[in-house]
Amino acid sequence: MSDPTAAVPENAGGTDAAAAEVDRLGGMVDRALTRLEQTSAFAKLTARGPLLDISGRLLARPGGAAALYARAAQIEASGVFMGTDWDHPEILQPSLATGTLAHGDRPTVTLELLSELRLLAVAQRELFHPRLSSEQAQHFLSQLLALNLNRLFGPPGEAERGKEVITTATRHVVGFVADYIGYGEILARLSTEIERILAQRPIMVDDVKVMVTRIAACLHDPDISPGGVGLGAARLVSALFGPTAGCREDPGLDVYKDRLAVLDDSSLQQEARAFARAMHDTGLVSPYHPVFLRHSTALERGDLVGQALGLSSTGTEAFSCYASLVYSLIDTAITPDTTQAVYGLALLLERGLLFDPAIAPALWGHIGLKPSATVERTLAAAFGDRQPAATLLLAGTISVLGQPLGIGQGNNPTCQAARALSMWALAAPDYLLHLLTRAARDDDIVMVFEGGRLSSSTLAAGLAPTPPIDVDPVSVVLVPHLDRIYIEMGRLCAGRAGDPHAWVNSAMHGWWVGQDTALVVDLATGHLADSADRFVRLFHGLYHPLYNGNKPVTHPQPAGIAVTDSLGRFIGWHAISILRVGLGPQGDMRVFFFNPNYDGGQDWGHGVIVSTDGNGERFGESSLPFEQFAARLYLFHYDACEEGRSDAVPADTVEMVLAMVRATWAADKMPEPEA
Amino acid sequence: MADKNPEKGYVALLGWSLGAIDAAERFDRRYVVVAPDWAEPYCQEHGIPYVPWNFERLNDRSMEIAEKLKAMGVDAAIPLFEETVEWAGAINAVIQGNPRLHGQAILFRDKALMKRRAQLGGIRVGIFEEAHDRGDIIRFLKRVNQTLLKLDGDPNDPIHIKAFDKAGCLGHRVVRTADDIDAIPDDEFPVLMESHLDGWEFAVEAWIHNGKVQFLNISEYVTLGYSVFVPASPELEAWRPRVEQEIEKLIKTFDIENGFIHPEYFVTSDGTMYFGEVAYRPPGFKVFELLERAYGFNAYQGLIVCFDPKSTDEEVAAFFPEEVVDATGYAGCFGVYPRQRVVSDLAIPEETENHPYFESHELTAPLESKVTKRTAFGTHWGLVYFVGDDPGTMRDLLKRQEELDFYV
C-alpha cells in the first residue's frame, strides 16, 4: 500500500515523538468522550463537536486509527451517533458512506470514520451491537473498501488545502480496516459486485469500467499480492484489456491494428471467437474489439464479423440478409470510443429485429442522419468530442435496440421517460427510431393527446431541470422531449376526477396499454383506498396465470410501484413496466419487470429483495414473487374485458398481500378510523 | 437524568440554551424551560419540561407567566440571555414576593440607568451620556477631546457607542471621526456614549448567594472581542482583593441577594479601577465552558445552586472549588473573524492545529464563497479552544491567532 505507516500498530513504527502525540491526542479524546457520555441525550448532537474535531486530528496521525479502534466501545457508548442515521447502523449503505467520505464536511467525515471503526469492532466480535450482526458489519465494510479502493492504492487525489487532515485520516482508516478484512476479500468482493451489475447488462458501463481498471491496477501491483483474488477479477480485467491472444498484454490499439494485418486466417478466427466469448460472458466490450471488427469489415469478411459478434444461426441469418447494412453500421458507429455498441449490434441481430420491414430502412435513414447543432452540443457535453455526434448517436441507437432492458434513468427523476424508451425499444422499435429522428434532426417531437397536438419544443421543461448527461446517447437526446410531453399531458388532466395516469399512460406509450386503470391509493386523501382488497384480486385476475386463464403478458405494461427502503419505509412512487409473469426455477410464480434504475437489485425491506439474477431473469429483468410484487404495486393498467377469476383468489392470499402493504409503504397512509 | 430532590428548589430557565438545559437535566433540582413555542416539538420529543412563552416587551399578559410558574411551585427564575433579564426580575418579584427585584432587573437592562446607579453607589465610572441623534454624538466627541486638552488637528481620542439594552459587544462601535458617526444607522439610536479608557479591561463572573460572593472568576481579555482566558494571569490576579471590594460594592448598590453577575472593569495605568457595565446573566464567549474546562465544575449548575433560595450555605460552599488554586490549567478561546474580503473555505492554520495547547474548534466551512464584513464587535464566526499550563504562552498564543487566516 502507498502509505506503509497507516496500519502500523500504535507505537511500533513511528518515532517516540509521534507515539507521544498519539497518546496526547488520545488523552484529549478520552476527555471529550467522557464529557459527551455525561451529556444528556437531547444535547449530544450539539455537544459532539470537540470529540469529532480531536478524533479527526488523531486519525490523521500514524497509529491514530488503532488508538480510536481501541476506544470503539466508548465511542459507541458516548452517544456520538445519537440523533443521526449512524445510530441505525443496520440501514447504512456503503455507497452513501462513500459519498460522505468523498464530499462530506470534516465533522461528518470524521463521524463516518468513527462509525467505520465501530463497525470493524462489531465485525471482529469485539463489540456487540443490538441491531447489527458481525456478519452485516463485515459485509458493509467489504463493500465500502471495494468502493474506496482508490484510497487504498491510488495516489492521493487533489487534496485541497484544509482538507489534508481529513483525506489523510480517511486513508488511514480505510487502510486500517483493510488490514483486518484482507485485500483478497476486497478484490473478490469487488468483482462479485461488478458481476452482479453486469448480470443486468446495462448499456452504460462507464462506472464498471472504472472499477475494473482499479482491479487491474491492483493485480499488477506486486505490493498487494492479493493471494487468491479469484478467476472472476482476472476474467473481468482480461475482457476489458486483453480478451484475445493478439492483445493479451494490452499492447495498444495501433500495435494491435498492425498485428492484425499479418495474422493468418486461423489466428484471425481465434481472435474473433475470443472476442465474442469475452463479450457475451461479461457484457463488457474491449476497445480492441472494434479494431478487429473494422478490420474484418474492410476486408468484407462476413464470416469473421459473424464470429466476432458471436452470432447464433438466427443472428447469422439476419446478418447475411442485411450484410451491407451491418457493414455500414459498423463503419459509421463502431469505434474504440463506442465499444459497447458492438454488444448492442450482436443482440440486435440476435433479436431478428432486421426482419421487421420498417427497421432496416429506418436504420439506413439513421446512418445518414445529421444531428442538429443543439444535439451535437449536448452529446459533446455528455460524451466528449472525440467522435462526431452522428457516430455517438448511431452507436447509442444500436445499443438501445439491442439492449432494450439496458436503458437506465441515471441520476435523474425521469423514470417515466426511461421506461417509455425501453418499452418502445422492446415493442415498437420503428416508432422509437421515428421519434429519435425527429428529436435529433428537428429538436422537436410531436405527440397527439386526445385530439390535440403536443409539440415538445414549445413546452416548458419537465421534471428534470437540466437535460440528463449520465445516460446513453438516445436518452440524452430523447428524454428531455418525453419528459416535457409527459408533464404536459399530466397538466392537461389536472382537475379531472381520477388518476391522470389513466389517460396519459395509454396515450403516451401505445395502443397496448390497458384502457382501464386500477389504483390502490385514494387520490383525495392520499390514504390506502378502501377497495384495496379489490385491487389485489383484480391484479391476480389479470396478470396471474392461474387466475387469468393462463394468458401471457404480450407487451410491456406500465405500472407504478411504491418504493421502500431496506427498512420497508416509503421512499417514493416509481415507474416500472411489467414484462411477463411466470414460474421461476424454484417453482414460485414471479413477476418479471423492468426497473429503469441503474441497479435493479434492491432491498425493499421486510424480506422483499428484488432479484436480478438466478431466479429465471433474462438480462436486465428484475423479479419478485407475485405476492411480494403485488404488495409494492399501487397502479396498473388493464382491459376490463380480460379480467379472469379474481373472485377465486383465496382470502388468505389477499390478506397476506395487504398485510405487507400496511406494514410498509402504507403504514402512514392508513385511513382515519370512522368516528 | 439525575434524580430530582423535592426538598431543593425548583427553577425556571428563561430562554433556550441547550448547555444550560443539559446542565439542569443532570442536576439534582427540578427545572422547567421557558422558551418560545418553536422549542415545543424539541422539548416534547426529548421529554424536556417546558412552558411556552414568547419573550417580547413586558405587557399586560406578563403576570400570566409569573402566576403560572408560581402555581407550579417554581422558586426562582434564571435569565440566560440579556433579553430575559427583565423577565426574570419581574417573575422573581412575583414568585418570591419581593417587588424590588423587578426594579433591580430594569437597572441591569438599561446601561445608562445602570451607570447612574453605580455612580450613586460610589463606584467609579467613566464619562457617559445618552445620545438620541448624531448631533449628540458629535458634541460628546468634541467635549471629551476638549477635556483632554487636544488641539484642533490632533487625532481624537475615541469614544464608545453602545446600544442600551443589547448583550456584550452587540452594537458596540468605536467612534473617532465624523465619518464614523455618519456610519451609524438611524435605527441604532438611542445609544449610550462613553469616554475611552486606556487600560486593562477585564470581566468578572461572580456567583452570589445570600448576598455573599461564592465564587469569583476574573476573565482575562487578551484582545476585547477576540480572546479571553481563565483563570487570569498572576499579574491580573494580583488585583483580586481590589476586585472583591468592588464586587461587594456592586452587591450592595444593586441589592443582590441570590444570583449571578458579570461586570466589566478597566484598570488604568495609574491603578484606578473603573466600572464598565454589569450584566445579570451568563457571559458570552463561552466563558462557562472555559471555567468547566479549567476547574471541572459546571457553571450553569452553579447558577442554579446560587439562584435557588432553598440552597444551604454548606451546599453552596461545597459546590464551588477554590479560585485559581483548584484550576488544573488555563483555558482560553479565540473568536475567529475572516480576514480576507472574500472567503470560500475553512482552513485551520497548521501552527494552530499543531500547537500543544490547541484543543478543538467549532468553526464550520462556508457553504459558498462569502464576502465578509465586520460591523461593530461581536459577530465572530466561531470559537477556537486552547488549554495549557502557562498563562504567558496562552496570552501570546491567543494574540498570535489574530494574525492568522482561518478562512481563505
Automatic annotation (TrEMBL), chain B:
Keywords: ATP-binding, Ligase, Nucleotide-binding. One of its GO terms (molecular function) is ATP binding. InterPro entries: ATP-grasp. It comes from the Bacteria. Residues 115-308 form the ATP-grasp domain. This is Carboxylate--amine ligase. It comes from Roseospira marina.
